[in-house]
Amino acid sequence: MNDSQDRNFKIGNPILEVNNISLSFGGVNAITDTSFNVLEHEVRAIIGPNGAGKSSMLNCINGIYKPQQGSIAFKGNKLSKITPNLIAQMGISRTFQNLALFKRMSAIDNILVGRKLHSKASFFDVAFQLPKARREEKVNLKKCEEIVEFLEIGKIKDTPVGKLPYGLQKRVELGRALATEASLLLLDEPMAGMNVEEKREMCRFILEVNEEYGTTMVLIEHDMGVVMDISDRVVVLDYGKIIGDGPPDEVRTNQKVIDAYLGVSHGE
Amino acid sequence: MATAVSTYSRNDYINFSVLMVLGFLIIPMTVNSDYWFTSILIPWLCLALATIGQQVIMGYTGQLALGAAGFMAAGAFACFNLILRVDGLPFFGALIISGLIAAAIGIVFGLPSLRIRGIYLMVATLASQFFIIWVIDKFGWFKNYDSSGIITAQDIVIFGRPYTSPVDMYLVILVVVTVMTILAINMARGSTGRNWMAVRDMDVAAESMGVSLLKTKLQAFAISSFFCGVAGALFAFTYLKSLEPVAFDIKLSFKILFMCILGGLGTINGAFIGAGFILLFPVLLNYLGNNVFHGAIDATIISALEQVVFGVLMIVFMIYEPLGMARLWENLKQRFFKKKDK
Questions:
Q1: Top-level CATH class of A1-91+183-268?
Q2: Which chain A residue's Cα is nearest to B181?
Q3: In chain B, where are the structural domains located?
Q4: Residues A220, A236: Cα–Cα separation, whole Å
Q5: What ipTM was reported for this prediction?
Q6: With contacts defined as CB-CB under 8 Å, which chain B residues touch A87?
Q7: CB distance A160–B1 less than 8 Å?
Q8: pTM over 0.80
Q9: Do domains A1-91+183-268 and A99-181 have the same CATH topology?
Q10: Residue A202: what are its φ and ψ, rounded to 5°?
């Protein structure tokens, strides 16, 4: 459990509320009548076996999928017309399970795209390099250099990300999400495919961001050790339904969760 | 592709100064054959400008659009009509308005890009090519009810001075192309270009970062068409010296597409390299045919050979160097000036 003492932000009220969400693709129910909330400044993990609907859940919050039923409220406002673009404007950013970087752009450019919502200069300002564009670019570049330094990717910042190893690509993607300065980060398997060392570093980055800036995190993760270490509360999904919700220690001892993960005979 | 950060290095300034001195001083002073101006330099600059337009939409924003020549026609006829019908409109003013008209048409024909992509978008944008030419042919007003089919372009007059000699026209074009290239580079390296490339590389992620696909794509279509429109006006007024819709047919669109791909998708200097190569290559072949083989090879074979070589080159570049000749140039530079840069 994430009980580090130097947290600058105490966990507060619900920032995100998911109410009775149902999502189906054709006849397949990905998520069925699911509700949970995320408190401000907390690290919330979503776990569950493959195909439990974890990524679908993030895609619903992010506006890529439109749930057939239910509602999502962010900072008390019900999100009515959800598109990824509007969600981003409200202050929710994310990373993707299978990496969705801009492959032909350099690492720093990828991170700079994350500054989009803090860029007000029009193409005209940029074309003529008017003071507005120059000033903005300077500020954005400085922010991104800070992120680069924080994530320790200074050496590769000018490399096209398509050529980077997987672990570094994951880091760049986190950097891009951080650059948005969103108040809620959705991290879809930020540590998938990493070795122990890389995982440890990624955990450190996530916790440090959470502690220093109070960014609320929702993360999907398979590595139970990691989940138990860094999350404040865990939601467990199985077949699109919630089978457990609470602090890591409580979830770990939940019989339903153990059954879902270890399997249970359905014979009798 | 270096970092797209809109600060310029010392090298950039040096390159720029060298090119400016070369373009504005050395070439006008040393080249004294009109052939070079009217048949090589002028069309090269015009088509390079149109290729930059194609780069914006295809190389940077990743939208397969085919129809640059249509927008060039729109720009050319807009410029003709503006100069004809608006008294006292300066040439550069007419040029800018022509570009804006082409941009407006570009936005309309860019709308399908919000729904379809890839090869299907190419087919949809092809409509612009045929539609624009058809409209110009159909409604006599655009051609000022000229029945001959070919209209002579007006002389370029700037501040009361006519620019009609090849060198003069070359200089006028050079000024326009220089300014617009700088604008294009600024955009490509700045936040505007980053949004384009984000849409190109991964549109879902771009949207999640707050990049509006609608706005970015239409903006790219507008800017691309603006460049094509201005290029078309210059092309008609200085190279063709006449206005005929036939000159802006699908073949020209393909030519610009090839220039874009051979030069290197997503590069601005590639537009110049690609345009130069495609214009100069037939000249070179002819020269070889006449001077090395002394006419032993039939002219028709040479022109057929040209097509074959282009086709092969396209395939080779698509497979081995999608970043085209601009990348080859970079590699070459790096080999010669090892670690001198940065």
A1: alpha beta
A2: A127
A3: 10-248
A4: 10
A5: 0.90
A6: 208
A7: yes
A8: yes
A9: yes
A10: -60, -40
